[in-house]
Specification:
The protein is an alpha/beta fold and about 400 residues long. It has three domains: about 100 residues, no CATH class; about 110 residues, no CATH class; about 180 residues, Dna Topoisomerase Vi A Subunit, Chain: A, domain 2 (3-Layer(aba) Sandwich), CATH 3.40.1360.10. About 45% of the residues lie in helices and about 15% in strands. The strands form four sheets. A six-stranded mixed β-sheet has the order 9-6-12-11-13-14. β7 and β8 form a beta hairpin. α5 packs antiparallel against α6, α13 crosses α14 and α14 packs parallel to α16. The longest helix is centred in the first third of the chain and has 24 residues. The relative contact order is 0.07.
Length: about 400
């Protein structure tokens, strides 16, 4: 309404004064307001108080003055008037005296108190120690928004921590958890967890470039169970809870948590190759030259805890001579390879890579990959002893999708 124009303009001025106080508090990083500094004030100029100078009607300016007097009388702010303009005829300067009284009259929370509350809730949201919580707390204490999430939106990080804790408690048996079922149990909303993709990614590894569902797979959360596809000779059988199932070409699919072991009735499997993408797996599974001693496994992208558990049991039961992985030549592909490598090490194997050296596998002239991603890939390669691949990225810093590369085993 028009009669509130001056009041609203005054409120905007005082909120800006509060924001200046908040900037000072956050610059110190201790979330404490100190009165020892010079007073925070706004001179009554067109650039500093545009909402005041934009009041065209005398009545609106009088409403502004009257509203301001409420805060002056309460000791929240002080005002200096231009004596040449008559009694309170022209504002000269507004200074902050007591931010707590200012917030009380405005009926708002002090920004640094909001941040204190957000930090408390974050630090008490989970029993699992997450090193990235300290990064968030340090950023909030300085008025920053880590991962694009400010303290006022702390519920997103709080809920994400609850998801991480719940998923890890439920995944103790290497069994995948139904994502939407868990979302209903935790929040009464089947899609709440999916809306937390970004804060979950930040809390887990800080990567913002992850594939959409990678963060959920990392936690063992799936919309529906993915079968493990196996391709090999019929002399190999899969031992499940109550039966032995022979392998078949091009492949068979079973829930990974149901796979207990693999058994060979003749010569043992000598080589196990995991393949990241479905098109490449199908091509490999149907290839006529695949020898009898080869087992091919479809990874279905980022391996879930259930998949990794079955992968370990397979390696321990068939004891192959060589364990390999073939995937995309990019950061996501090498992260997947690193997870498989860790699980292979539990069975006593060093995972090697197949057709993932960009020097030999790049086809055509793809665009040069981002430097920071190349550096991360080289770090992964150095960690797992993939020296040739590391050297390949130094010489040829390019990415390549697996499907472009032809299966040539």
């Amino acid at each position: 309404m028009s009669e509130n124009t001056g009041v609203l303009a005054c409120n905007r001025t005082l909120i800006r004064l509060m924001n200046r106080a908040a900037s000072r508090v956050f610059s110190a990083g201790n979330l404490q307001f100190s009165e020892e500094h010079p007073k925070i004030s706004l001179p009554a100029t067109e650039s500093s108080l545009p909402e005041y100078y934009n009041l065209e009607r005398f009545a609106h300016r009088e409403d502004y003055h009257a509203r301001l007097q409420t805060f002056v009388k309460a000791g929240a702010v002080s005002a200096v008037w231009d004596r040449n303009a008559g009694d309170r005829g022209q504002l000269s300067r507004i200074s902050l005296e007591n931010p707590y009284k200012l917030a009380e009259i405005l009926d708002i929370d002090l920004p640094w108190d909001t941040t204190k509350k957000a930090i408390y809730e974050l630090e008490h949201a989970s029993n699992i120690d997450n090193p990235r919580v300290k990064i968030i707390v340090d950023a909030w204490s300085r008025g920053k928004a880590p991962g694009g999430i400010a303290a006022e939106q702390s519920h997103h990080f709080v809920d994400a921590l609850k998801v991480i804790e719940a998923s890890r408690m439920l995944n103790t048996g290497n069994k995948d958890v139904m994502l939407r079922r868990l979302s209903i149990q935790l929040f009464g909303d089947s899609k709440r967890i999916e809306s937390l993709r970004h804060p979950l990614t930040f809390l887990l590894d800080g990567e913002s470039e992850s594939e959409d569902d990678d963060v959920f797979t990392e936690l063992g959360l799936v919309k529906h169970p993915q079968p493990m596809l196996l391709s090999g000779a019929s002399v190999v059988t899969v031992h499940t809870e109550d039966q032995h199932i022979p392998l078949a070409r091009p492949y068979i699919g079973l829930r990974p948590d149901k796979i207990i072991s693999l058994n060979c009735s003749k010569d043992r499997i000598k080589r196990v190759i995991t393949i990241e993408n479905l098109a490449s797996f199908n091509e490999a599974a149907e290839h006529s030259r695949n020898p009898e001693e080869l087992l091919i496994i479809y990874v279905a992208g980022n391996p879930t805890p259930a998949f990794l558990g079955a992968y370990l049991r397979i390696l321990e039961s068939i004891k192959p001579e060589l364990v390999q992985h073939w995937g995309d030549i990019d950061l996501g592909g090498f992260k997947i390879a690193s997870k498989l490598a860790n699980k292979a090490m539990e069975a006593g194997y060093k995972l090697t890579l197949l057709s993932m050296n960009p020097v030999h596998a790049i086809i055509g002239t793809p665009p040069k990959a981002p430097k920071h991603k190349i550096e991360k890939i080289i770090a992964i390669c150095n960690q797992y002893g993939w020296d040739k691949e590391a050297q390949g990225f130094e010489l040829s810093p390019f990415f390549q999708e697996q499907e472009i590369i032809i299966w040539s085993y």
